[in-house]
Design brief:
The chain has 258 residues and is mostly helical. It is built from four helices and no strands. Helix content is 97%, strand content 0%. The N terminus is likely disordered.
């Protein structure tokens, strides 16, 4: 007996602690993945609705049978009561025996006594069916409300997540802008780049000056050479023209003498 009590206590402890553990795990999952938890809750509610609907279908069939039994029994009693009017005459004329009439009356009395029980079973079946119908209607309404509430909740969750993402993006943008401002004011790398650019610009200016100085004598020499070429070309042209005039004059004289 003590062993059985020990096992019973152990079973209760396991049920208590593991049941609590299951609740804690379910709560953790619900916080971590609310959409999956929502689907699990809906599946549970839908399963209850399916179970109630199956029981309702069975109850309807049972009520239909009980109702049919009552209708059949009432018809049988009514027909037997009509037959009572002719039984005495038939028994008097010898068409039917007294034993048969007695059996007939026994069945009529038994059926009459059984009718209230059949009616009670029919009423009980109707009440059970009605209660199940109410449960099914209630569960159907709960499921519809659950779907509407879940849809609204998920929309709210998505909206809140979108707002959170937007705020994070704005904070990130602000951080980037602040970082860029800090780099512009404090970064040694940017300062080095600026100084390097200034140094290169100064070197370029110096090279330009040196190149200008070196180019000036070359330009002057080129100008002098150009002057000399112009003088030489002009003298060659005058010389050529003079010789041409002399040649033409000589030719003219020769022609006249001839």
């Amino acid at each position: 007996m003590s062993t059985m009590k020990g096992w019973g206590l152990t079973a209760r402890l396991i049920s208590k602690h593991f049941g609590t553990l299951g609740d804690l795990v379910s709560q953790s999952i619900a916080r971590y993945d609310p959409e999956t938890a929502t689907r699990a809750d809906r599946d549970h509610l839908a399963e209850r609705l399916r179970d109630a609907a199956q029981k309702l279908a069975t109850a309807r069939a049972s009520f239909t049978r009980e109702q049919a039994d009552v209708v059949t029994l009432r018809e049988l009693i009514a027909n037997d009561e009509k037959a009572l009017l002719t039984l005495s005459d038939k028994m008097a004329s010898g068409q039917i025996s007294e034993a048969t009439v007695s059996l007939f009356c026994d069945e009529l009395e038994a059926n009459t006594k059984r009718l209230p029980l059949e009616i009670q079973e029919q009423d009980d079946a109707r009440d059970y069916m009605t209660q199940l119908q109410q449960i099914v209607d209630s569960l159907s309404q709960q499921l519809a409300q659950f779907d509407a509430s879940a849809k609204k909740a998920i929309q709210g969750l998505n909206s809140a997540q979108a707002q959170k993402d937007l705020q994070e993006m704005q904070l990130e943008r602000q951080s980037q802008l602040t970082g860029l401002a800090g780099l512009q004011g404090q970064s040694s790398a940017l300062s080095a780049l600026t100084k390097r650019a200034q140094a290169l610009s100064a070197e370029a200016d110096g090279l330009r000056i040196v190149a200008g100085i070196g180019q000036k004598p070359l330009d002057q020499a080129a100008e002098i050479a150009a002057i000399r070429r112009s003088v030489t070309q002009s003298g060659n042209t005058a010389e050529s023209m003079l010789e041409r005039l002399r040649r033409l004059s000589a030719q003219q004289k020769d022609a006249t003498a001839a």
